[in-house]
Amino acid sequence: TSTSVGASANLGVSKTLAAPVSPVAGDTLVYVITVSNAGPSTASDVALVDSLPSGGTYVSATNAGSHASGVITWSTFSLASGASRVDTVRVKTVLDGTYANVARVSSSAGDPATADNRSTTSTSVGGVANLSVTKTVAAPASPAAGDTLIYVITTSNAGPSTASDVALVDSL
Q1: Cα 146 from chain centroid (whole Å)
Q2: What pLDDT digit, counting tens, does each position of 23-34 carry?
């Protein structure tokens, strides 16, 4: 009697933020995705998918990753037992907040432990306010000595984030 045994490949994926260390709104996040195969067989038809964080803008992906509707997919590949593959994804932040990014891997080979086939990275992105202040004489149009002047002080925030607890001091 013979028994056919299918391939078994214990795939895993990990995703980490490589840069910047303390991101703020407007920065480009660099994620590193590592797919590994603990074996015992070669994994064929390995599929890697990365769902980009809401609020982020796709910039690039290595190994010909293709982007559509917030999801990056790569052409299927094979991964030998004991081998790994590294991909890099770049995402530009628009606003401050938490950016959750999920990578998933699967294969046509049976996987005895699927808990490590998904990796979620949450990145806290700090706010950036771009404040400016202008002060102009509103009246009189042509002041003379002894006139009382009226000033207009304008404070603006070009963002991209909301400025909190803003204090303005006008020293005469």
Answers
A1: 58
A2: 999 999 999 999
